[in-house]
Amino acid sequence: MNSDWQLIKLKSVDSTNRFLKDFISETRARNPVVCITEQQTAGYGQQNRRWQTNADSAIFSIAYPLSKKMPIPGLFSLQVASLLHKSLTNLTSDALYLKWPNDLYNSEGKVAGILIEQVIDFDYQALIIGIGINRSPDQLTASASNVSNFCIEQLIEHFLQQFKHDGFLHFSPFALLEYWNKHDLFTIEESVHLITKEDLNTRESGEYLGINPNGQALIRINGKITPLSSGQSSIRKVSLSVTQ
């Protein structure tokens, strides 16, 4: 592991994201910190949904300190997902797909999720990037799947190297969108279900039109094109089977 990164290993913790938010708020770390755990007892994902894991899951979070009031690019969430995709496909050779805004899927279902949060305290700012990857199908939800087994520390090493090589906050939007389009879970004009955070049970149908330069998913509903921002709503395949 690069000496610029501090590594914390825990047997068990409620949430690696929550642990790092508290840790850097107290220490005000100036270099990135990585926290790995074997067991996460109260993990959470987007909109505080429970983060389902098992004993074989790879669970870690990265605290990345920023310069004061550094703006976060609109495509940042997609960039993190693309870097994880590159690292996982390099280690496992699995066929994986990117699902807007920052999930990874294989042909059977979701294999990895990412939760990005911020710590902002007067003159201190940091990003917290939580990652959970399924390495075994045991005790997962019906819509989840898993990747081939890999060493978590090798993955983190590769992932952090990607940060340096491809850029973390300073990257080419064109190159990112080109990579995303190549590995997108959805195809252009594919029928999808739109699920809003206000009503998780109602699934409105639309057609997927890709990602715009602001990182928003474009959905055509009844002839009207609607841009979706991360956190507002999510999109689902009409069928779980991926045919590419």
From TrEMBL:
<keyword id="KW-0436">Ligase</keyword>
<dbReference type="GO" id="GO:0004077">
    <property type="term" value="F:biotin--[biotin carboxyl-carrier protein] ligase activity"/>
</dbReference>
<dbReference type="InterPro" id="IPR004143">
    <property type="entry name" value="BPL_LPL_catalytic"/>
</dbReference>
<protein>
    <submittedName>
        <fullName>Biotin--[acetyl-CoA-carboxylase] ligase</fullName>
        <ecNumber>6.3.4.15</ecNumber>
    </submittedName>
</protein>
<dbReference type="InterPro" id="IPR045864">
    <property type="entry name" value="aa-tRNA-synth_II/BPL/LPL"/>
</dbReference>
<dbReference type="Pfam" id="PF03099">
    <property type="entry name" value="BPL_LplA_LipB"/>
</dbReference>
<dbReference type="InterPro" id="IPR004408">
    <property type="entry name" value="Biotin_CoA_COase_ligase"/>
</dbReference>
<feature type="domain" description="BPL/LPL catalytic">
    <location>
        <begin position="11"/>
        <end position="134"/>
    </location>
</feature>
